[in-house]
């Protein structure tokens, strides 16, 4: 069985050192993208190995040896966690070997790539890394690399406990959602894993993704929260549905036809009529008008004087994106 404390047994020959300046710059770029902390950094921090994170990415072989030694010497870290960290580093090494091979083939004008055995998977087998840990670390490694769709294939594995779920939701909502695909990935992760989100940042990120997909589903999510959070999320739902700066701003008609309880009805009116954001929401008055009609308050709407039904029709057009 492999002795993970022996650097050469883990990493083999590193001459020349594979991690060059451009690779380090790429890692640092990814780190900045995630607000200064890769998922690898978060793992090290959770294991009280924050000092080791300062050695990543390693600039030379001595730095990598130091990182390896810091991991192996950590007396308060379980062996399977140490093995998981080394597995992550070997995934980096695998990627660099593939990149270097592709560069050589381009220079030699070779068309067919030759197969490269995975050092990470070989290490996992020889060091008996528990499968659920290698699956999880591969998912986090893919997250750090920005390969979000591939990452979910690992992070939604049924054997995993949803660690770092808040961070994963926020990262997917911020970086994996696009105008083309919408909030598909954060919602896919949430529905597959069903994590308990503990931070307001993660709850709001998920809520915005839900609202972009379905107003009614977002409302159900808000109703399952405590009253104070329920009110905050409901206001966020209303503002997001009408704010043209957000991707899901065309849900005014759906918002106007929701079945709301008394508190929600009051929150809706307050948000759209007297809230600080009401003036900048172009469809606020139209949505309130449609809401009154949906509640059967046609008489009130009809008391506006001449041209009242033209105003009503215009309200429907504005709230439904011109479809009325």
Describe the 3D structure:
The protein is elongated. With 324 residues, it is mainly alpha-helical. The protein is built from 19 helices and no strands. It folds into three domains: 1-129, no CATH class; 132-213; 222-324, no CATH class. Helix 6 (79-108) packs antiparallel against helix 7 and helix 9 (148-155) runs parallel beside helix 11 (184-193).
Number of strands: 0
Report low-confidence residues grouped into runs of 5 or more: 300-307, 319-324
Number of domains: 3
Approximate shape: elongated
SSE pattern, N- to C-terminal: HHHHHHHHHHHHHHHHHHH
Helix share, percent: 55-70%
| Secondary-structure-derived class | mainly alpha
Amount of beta strand: under 5%
* Helical run tally: 19
Radius of gyration: 26 Å
Q: What's the main sheet like?
A: none
Question: Averaging pLDDT over every residue, what do you get?
Answer: 86
Q: N- to C-terminal separation?
A: 71 Å
Subcellular location: Nucleus
Protein name: ELYS-like domain-containing protein
Main location: nucleus
InterPro entries: ELYS_dom
């Amino acid at each position: 069985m492999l002795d993970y404390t022996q650097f050469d047994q883990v990493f083999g020959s590193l001459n020349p050192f594979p991690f060059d300046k451009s690779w380090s710059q790429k890692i640092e770029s990814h780190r900045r993208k995630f607000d200064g902390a890769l998922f690898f950094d978060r793992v090290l921090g959770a294991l009280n190995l924050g000092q080791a994170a300062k050695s990543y990415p390693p600039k030379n072989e001595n730095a990598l040896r130091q990182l390896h030694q810091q991991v192996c010497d950590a007396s308060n870290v379980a062996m399977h966690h140490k093995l998981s960290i080394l597995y992550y580093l070997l995934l980096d090494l695998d990627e660099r070997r593939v990149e270097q091979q592709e560069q050589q083939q381009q220079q030699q004008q070779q068309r067919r790539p030759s197969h490269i055995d995975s050092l990470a998977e070989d290490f996992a087998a020889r060091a008996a890394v528990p499968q659920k840990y290698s699956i999880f670390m591969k998912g986090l490694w893919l997250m750090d690399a920005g390969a979000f769709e591939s990452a979910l294939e690992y992070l939604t594995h049924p054997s995993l406990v949803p660690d770092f779920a808040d961070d994963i939701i926020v990262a997917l909502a911020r970086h994996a959602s696009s105008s083309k695909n919408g909030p598909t990935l954060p919602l896919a992760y949430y529905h597959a894993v069903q994590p308990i989100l503990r931070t307001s940042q993660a709850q709001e990120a998920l809520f915005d993704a839900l609202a972009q997909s379905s107003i009614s589903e977002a409302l159900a999510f808000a109703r399952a929260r405590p009253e104070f959070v329920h009110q905050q999320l409901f206001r966020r739902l209303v503002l997001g549905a009408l704010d043209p700066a957000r991707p899901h701003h065309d849900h005014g008609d759906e918002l106007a036809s929701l079945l709301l309880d008394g508190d929600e009805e009051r929150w809706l009116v307050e948000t759209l009529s007297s809230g600080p954001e009401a003036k900048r929401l172009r469809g606020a008055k139209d949505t309130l008008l449609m809401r009154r009609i949906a509640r059967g308050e046609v008489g009130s709407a009809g008391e506006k004087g001449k041209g009242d039904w033209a105003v009503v029709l215009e309200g429907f057009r504005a709230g439904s994106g011109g479809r009325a």
